Predict the structure.
Amino acid sequence: MRRTTLIALAAAVSATLTVSACDSSGTDAKPAAKEAAPAVDGQSTNAQPVSALKQGGSVKIAIDQWITQYNVNQVDGQQGDAAEIARTVLPHLFYADAKGVGQPNTAFLVSAKVVSTSPQVVEYQLAPKAKWSDGTPLGWKDFEAQWKALNGSDKAYEAADTSGYDQIAKVEQGADEHGVKVTFDKPYADWTRLFDPLYPAAYIDTPEKFNKGWGEKAPVTSGAFKIGAYDKTAQTITLVPDPQWWGDKPVLDSIVYRVLDRSARTEAFLNKELDEAPALLPEDYKRLVKDPTADIRRGARWDEVHITLNAGRGPLQDVKVRNALQAAIDRKGINASFAKDLSFELKPLNSHFFMPNQAGYKDNSSEFDTYDPAKAGKLLEEAGWKDAGQGKPRTKDGKELALDYTLSAGGSSSQEDQAQLVQQQLGAVGVKVNINKVPANDYFNKFVNTGNFDLVSFRNVDAAYTSKLIPVFQQPQGANLFQNFGSVGSPRIDDLLKRAGQTTDHAEALTLYNEADVEIFKLGHSIELYQRPEIVAARKGLANDGAVGLSDVDYTKVGWQK
């Protein structure tokens, strides 16, 4: 539910399938009237001027797991809740508006602009008052250290994403001590996504500091809020205003993040333990909409639900087996079941890079992405997996065709429903699926991020900058999977993505991303399902938050109406 503005894994694992057609009384529910999905800039936040808000108060927000890594540029820091917290307590240089376009955050930036195109040179002028919590002013050395850690030249830095940084030739001081000059050796259109959030040089300038110095804590901050308390026993992280903050003072006294299973959030909201809760699933919506203190808010987020196929191990190393799974899984059936009681119209998702309501969207699905069990069976035969009879797993060299579908124990019942449906569909073509439920706090760090799965379902979110998706599809380098946790890629895809990331011609970039997408579908990288609707229950009176769509949350302006 939360906005991260970082293309990372949202720890909010995909809510997926719902099969109930009855309300709580047991009577048949009437089909919900379908509405078109919101426009690309659709959002509902109860926008209010700060003058209309009470000073003080707290907002209570649920997160999916205890934060183990606050360096969002490190491979274990890509979890969505970690990204949101980090960008609230660290320099957030650009705020995304309703259309996902980055606008300078004047608390940190006086200006930031391209001053030359050949070569491309960007000059930043930092706010003179901007400093780290240890008293050190923000400066060009911070930019330089982050570039060196993330440009891919030193493999000891466990970088989650080198794109953009690997196109920079040098970082140096600008016109004065508050100036930063960044020179690119290749053009990079999405330069505003770099150095955001910014990290302090003294705390990331060695691989040891970068990889381990931000484990379970943020040693230094710089923002309107700082971390006031980490309570691992209570599983809460509390943000409080930083008295050293030089910008607009926040309205709230605190923001409290609490680890809470998705299945428990509706009850927690009704009990006033949370101020926001997902209202997407019909069983949740039907309860939340009756709460007189709840305001149901809807928006259009870049939010992609999919199933990742892992080519890094086992039978899925064979592209024919991955293609067989694409043909054996009934995507339309999953989507229809999920949307049965929703007011939103769910369109099929046939792109890895763009949402159906977004410019650039094109159906790039392959011949394998249409439900065809007969084709799936033929592909498995060609791959050497022999039919063992109805209801039995196929075999090859005396081994059964068996895959693990890894689930988070903290997820919703609908996630388990989806896994069971996939289990049934794949079982029908002779693929045995074992559902492996793992602890919520281990789900990403020990399973998804390390490629320790065969099948897994999660969400990629907030890719308003398309280049943020490059590490999701680029080929891994050794043990560094980037964000391509299923290790499905090719030199051709890498080349197309590299060219897309280097062009400043928007139309050309869209063409290149779509060409790469065609190859991604053919290789069976993942099974695309749908754009997840954004439906949020927010406490009435909560202002400037909720269903934020493509925009960032400015927590200095979040508060309670007078």
Q: What stands out?
A: The CA atoms of residues 189 and 550 lie 19 Å apart.
